[in-house]
Amino acid sequence: LMPGFLGTERQFAARYGKPILASRDARSSSREQEAGVLAMEALHRQVLPFLLRRMKEDVLQDLPPKIIQDYYCILSSLQVQLYEDFAKSRAKCDVDETVSAVSLTEETEKPKLKATGHVFQALQYLRKLCNHPALVLTAHHPEHKRITEKLGAENSSLHDIQHAPKLSALKQLLLDCGLGNGGSPESGTETIVAQHRILIFCQLKSMLDIVEHDLLKPHLPSVTYLRLDGSIPAGQRHSIVSRFNNDPSIDVLLLTTHVGGLGLNLTGADTVVFVEHDW
């Protein structure tokens, strides 16, 4: 906004940068430390009119109370079947053996064994399975053909939300927040601004795809949403955030925690949903 306000790069380094960095050296003299403090104070005085800092304790009393709710989702019959198949597999036995071996080394105070990769692969498999069976039941899965044929005979598919209780719970949560009760955006009806606006976070981009294509589009077509994940170029992300914050007609912002979990100012929403948690 004010080019040259702090001088050129060389002037800034000489006036502020070098004395401040020198004062932080453990071997700096008392004179260097004093010069660093004076340079820092001078820099603060220069930029103070342009910075507004609010401490959490200063604004917390002005904010509404934060309400945390946990929704417990019971596995669907398909998820239970896949979970039990895994429990009988060799991978499950490998996990048990590794955990037992690590526990034994801890008890005998011997050097710990290195964690083997298959343990984390197994945990990742179960994590995906609890989110949605489609995340694990890929074309390479040994049960893929049998299960898809069985679902087809029942006039169902892997992408029906009945097979993923997390999607059913998310649908009900959105309805409870007043979203998705109207017609589709293409119906020409007047747009109604919902009372609540929601951020939906997923760890996995593939799970975000499922939320968008298996839930929002077929079951809640009237819900307006934007999406922010790693596939969005960095230069376009700020405009998406600004549009969501400034346009109350947009109900939902879909995000991955990797992109939207840190450093974004998402003041347009009053509700945050974590579809899945990190480790």
TrEMBL record:
Keywords tagged on the record: Hydrolase
InterPro entries: Helicase_C-like (IPR001650), Mot1 (IPR044972), P-loop_NTPase (IPR027417), SNF2/RAD54-like_C (IPR049730), SNF2_N (IPR000330)
Database matches in Pfam families: Helicase_C, SNF2-rel_dom
Record protein name field: Helicase C-terminal domain-containing protein
GO molecular function, one term: ATP binding
PROSITE patterns linked to this entry: HELICASE_CTER (PS51194)
PANTHER family per the UniProt record, alphabetical: TATA-BINDING PROTEIN-ASSOCIATED FACTOR 172 (PTHR36498:SF1)
Domain Helicase C-terminal residues, every copy: 187-279
CDD domains according to UniProt: SF2_C_SNF
Matching SUPFAM superfamilies: P-loop containing nucleoside triphosphate hydrolases
